[in-house]
Backbone:
């Protein structure tokens, strides 16, 4: 009987295409040293891949919706706004955003080295593997070896997809890893959360806790046990129902994922359907009578929405930075 595939083998089978193609390549630099490197994601999405469907099994999509005028907003009418205060926005154009974008660069610029244990885990965000690029194996291995022996991490900045990131470069097992870091204002302090002040425990209670912790202690984290049991149960349930032909739906509808920007108001499609069936607005989404000089814009939005509904197309929003 053949051996069960290892986790690495499963990764190679499911993620082989992505693993063979780095999504960022450049230079790891410090002082006069430049080492070509390739960036690969060190993690992947988990959980159960659930989607919202209608009663016929068609995957639903989300739309941008204006609650004040009660209409969907097509992508050509979307603009970006920076919130200065609650309810007060400054409109910013694409050209203005491009003018303040970081300068494009293919370098991970190491600025300083710090003790690895000196980085609070709260600052870690996303993990990536840094693989040696073409003709950089010797310098790469030397840097990884020195960093690992000294137990130091390099702090660097680099630009990816028009955004500048702060990263910690770590060495482990002869490999370099990049961990993107949260900025200082993104990490909350215990004081800002409102946590109560701690009191000094009694010596007897401390000893009891020390004993309990020692009983359950191991040298290394058992990563094989870090499984999402809830997602596994959902997958098991779905596969069992599929095997027995229960509630299996198939659709040929071509749908696209729409990225919802933070804070955007999204139309509730089921609620809209109920309102439509109750006679509010016929087959199209209802519109209110525009006031305060908004009549022309509301009419334009309603017409665009009606056209989109009749053509059975969804207006897609561009990705908001």
Residues:
């Amino acid at each position: 009987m053949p051996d069960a595939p290892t986790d690495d083998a499963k990764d190679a089978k499911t993620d082989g295409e992505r693993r063979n193609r780095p999504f960022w390549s450049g230079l790891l630099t410090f002082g006069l040293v430049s080492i070509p490197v390739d960036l690969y994601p060190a993690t992947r999405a988990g959980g159960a891949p659930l989607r919202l469907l209608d009663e016929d099994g068609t995957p639903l999509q989300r739309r941008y919706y204006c609650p004040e005028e009660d209409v969907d907003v097509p992508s050509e009418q979307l603009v970006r706004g920076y919130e200065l205060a609650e309810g007060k926005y400054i409109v910013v154009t694409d050209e203005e955003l491009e003018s303040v974008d970081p300068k494009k660069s293919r370098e991970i610029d190491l600025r300083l080295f710090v003790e690895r244990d000196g980085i609070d885990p709260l600052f870690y965000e996303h993990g990536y593997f840094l693989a040696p690029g073409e003709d950089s194996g010797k310098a790469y291995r030397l840097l990884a070896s020195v960093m690992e022996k000294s137990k130091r991490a390099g702090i660097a900045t680099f630009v990816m997809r028009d955004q500048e990131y702060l990263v910690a470069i770590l060495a482990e097992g002869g490999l370099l890893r990049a961990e993107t870091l949260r900025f200082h204002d993104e990490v909350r302090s215990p004081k800002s959360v409102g946590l109560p002040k701690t009191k000094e425990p009694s010596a007897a209670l401390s000893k009891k806790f020390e004993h309990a912790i020692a009983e359950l202690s191991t040298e290394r984290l058992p990563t094989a046990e870090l499984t999402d049991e809830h997602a596994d149960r959902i997958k098991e349930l779905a596969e069992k129902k599929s095997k027995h032909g229960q509630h299996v739906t198939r659709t040929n509808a071509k749908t696209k994922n729409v990225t919802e920007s933070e804070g955007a108001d999204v139309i509730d499609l089921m609620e809209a359907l109920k309102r439509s069936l109750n006679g509010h607005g016929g087959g199209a989404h209802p519109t209110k009578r525009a006031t305060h000089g908004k009549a022309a814009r509301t009419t334009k939005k309603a017409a665009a929405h009606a056209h989109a509904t009749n053509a059975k197309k969804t207006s897609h929003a561009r990705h908001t930075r």
